[in-house]
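Duplicate of earlier report; [RNA-polymerase]-subunit kinase input re-posted below.
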Amino acid sequence: PQQEGVDSSDAAAAPAEAGAAPEQQAAEKPEKPAQVKRERRSRSSRSATAAAAAAAHAEVRLGGSFANKARGEQVAAGWPAWLSAVAGEAIDGWTPRRADSFEKIDKIGQGTYSNVYKARDSLSGKIVALKKVRFDNLEPESVRFMAREILILRRLDHPNVVKLDGLVTSRMSCSLYLVFDYMVHDLAGLAASPEIKFTLPQVKCYVHQLLSGLEHCHNRGVLHRDIKGSNLLLDNNGVLKIADFGLASFFDPNHKQPMTSRVVTLWYRPPELLLGATDYGVGVDLWSAGCILAELLAGKPIMPGRTEVEQLHKIFKLCGSPTEEYWKKSKLPHATIFKPQQPYKRRIADTFKDFPQSALRLIETLLAIDPADRLTATSALQSDFFTTEPHACEPSSLPQYPPSKEMDAKRRDEEAR
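Output:
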């Protein structure tokens, strides 16, 4: 599924997603030694210039001597000056670990700007996941984009949300590693396995954990904005954790700021975002959760669109098209382009006749076309889906699945895009 975007309101973040991936910018032909030296000097000069610009911006933002003092303390603690200058608030109070204190075991995930490794902490012997974020040009905007993710992770503390255990800096490269608990599986990988068929108590267990994690995020003023199976990680104790807050954003329903509509992977993206909404809230995550619930019960993604137009068409065919009142009040940017000539009827109950009635009722409200009609995570947790028998099983009673090839889910995502 397609995944795009960063906050237009967060101008700091946006440029990090623009342009070719750093690995695509690498020279295709072998370089001669002299070329390499010139290139290194050029890169060093550009990096120094970018770092100086970052430092100057930070001083203006934080205020002269205070910024200098705070930055000086962070550099003395071992943080690179370029990172402290731009992301000082995100790393405040933390001491960096050295990259050589971890032993990489295997690469388990890859994105445009980051790689994820299975690694061993040399000090404790613990197996961890290291998310390596590259800052090849030290652009302040890309560093601020990462700083927002760190700030969000530091605000969250819940059994069903990944916990940021530490930060690691590398003296050899302009990279930062985020340290997380190592998780054996993701929900997308298990759901796609032909040998695995979830029981209703297991589905209830997974979805209850997802909604509990979302409830915590929303109560802490965080929208995840990319809920999908490959971002729902599982350990061998059956605990589900929401991961990958790269597209997440802070929000305050009492002081709304415009946000980008170019978020959430396409198959799990709600209609208001496809219609260009910039004023939205927790409903975007709840729509994605509804898609996950229906997918687990159906055994396959329920709305696998290939383009935004096709995705919206699939949504209208299943969930019905918006009412005239909704079109008038919403004033969404793409409403005139995508408004169907004839209204569609809602067909969730007809499509999923085999689903339990309590599941259908929950899906109906999570997949409400009008976000104002969607449940919150708190109210969804009180749904009769969780109070009727069979009840959700305990996480510890979930099967311990053998380790799968860990790149599979991410690779499926990339191929589907």
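The longest strand covers residues 102-110.

Merging into the original ticket.
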